[in-house]
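Narrative of accomplishments. A recurring question from our advisory board has been how the design workflow behaves on a single, concrete structure rather than in aggregate. To address it, we present the structure tokens for one chain from the evaluation set, followed by the sequence designed for it. No filtering or post-editing was applied between the two.
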């Protein structure tokens, strides 16, 4: 496989993940939160376990321990996202959850006790402005659904940071399969205590559950693991920024959801903040210098025109 095919595979994965917001929104109409999460991950576990059973037979205790730890974080990711989906739109949720890309370098900076790069600071500032516009822009008040989605993005960033460390110490495939199994069992256990677990009762519910389990979880994570061996992290990061775009597109095509003009402006700022965070530091420095020079030249031009106008007016007044 070459890089172009790997990048195309990641685009397909991003389309799957973009559709997950619509699947979650539809599934939550008839299923409880933990019940839906349990079905999603248990289906994904059964499928991936059947495919990668040879790797699972060689699993050691440290792999199981790491998988269990991160399954708790993974469960938190989807609990917050699905709680948010109950009171916010699929398109808005997609853009808010994409803030994961901005949170990851900030968390990394906290762990290693090092100041974040300038591009991360710039991206964080733009993302906050984007959130302000995306969530209404009428004050400091944020709706509960929007806050849940932002917390989901934060949990997802924590998951990515620690998954990166854990997968370097154990077999990544076995780790991925077991964590989905643990997440499914944990969700089902909680659902048994606070909900009434059940199988989907409508065709739409079944489509949502199978879409989440087969496409978004099993196929999505498997294709990502394969494709990222043949492309760079920069390419992968930039491709994944398309996820909220696909989320908004699916929401518009299938449910007619639309953001306000202010919301679209906020969504654009979120995408720009993610792109800034993902670009290379050297390119960011060049871009920053270019931007400063452009602003400087514009300011000098304005000042020069002002001085010319002032001199012309003085001459006219003397006449």
């Amino acid at each position: 496989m070459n890089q172009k095919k790997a990048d195309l595979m990641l685009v397909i994965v991003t389309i799957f993940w973009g559709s997950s917001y619509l699947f979650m929104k539809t599934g939550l109409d008839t299923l409880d939160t933990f019940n839906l999460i349990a079905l999603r991950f248990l289906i994904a576990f059964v499928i991936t376990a059947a495919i990668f059973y040879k790797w699972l037979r060689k699993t050691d205790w440290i792999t199981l321990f790491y998988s269990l730890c991160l399954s708790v974080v993974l469960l938190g990711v989807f609990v917050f996202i699905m709680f948010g989906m109950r009171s916010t739109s699929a398109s808005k949720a997609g853009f808010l959850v994409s803030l994961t890309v901005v949170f990851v370098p900030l968390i990394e900076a906290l762990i290693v006790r090092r100041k974040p790069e300038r591009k991360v600071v710039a991206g964080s500032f733009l993302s906050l402005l984007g959130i302000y516009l995306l969530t209404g822009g009428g004050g400091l008040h944020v709706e509960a659904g929007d806050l849940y989605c932002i917390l989901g993005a934060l949990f997802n960033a924590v998951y990515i940071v620690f998954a990166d460390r854990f997968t370097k110490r154990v077999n990544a495939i076995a780790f991925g399969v077991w964590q989905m199994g643990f997440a499914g069992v944990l969700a089902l256990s909680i659902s048994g205590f606070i909900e009434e677990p059940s199988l989907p009762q409508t065709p739409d519910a079944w489509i949502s559950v199978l879409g989440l389990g087969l496409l978004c979880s099993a196929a999505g994570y498997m294709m990502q693991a394969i494709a990222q061996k043949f492309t760079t992290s920069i390419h992968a990061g930039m491709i994944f920024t398309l996820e909220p775009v696909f989320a908004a597109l699916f929401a518009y095509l299938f449910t007619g959801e639309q953001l306000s003009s202010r919301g679209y402006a906020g969504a654009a700022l979120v995408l720009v903040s993610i792109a800034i965070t993902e670009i290379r530091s050297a390119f960011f420095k060049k871009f920053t210098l270019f931007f400063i020079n452009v602003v400087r030249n514009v300011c000098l031009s304005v000042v020069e025109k002002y001085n010319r106008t002032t001199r012309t007016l003085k001459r006219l007044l003397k006449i």
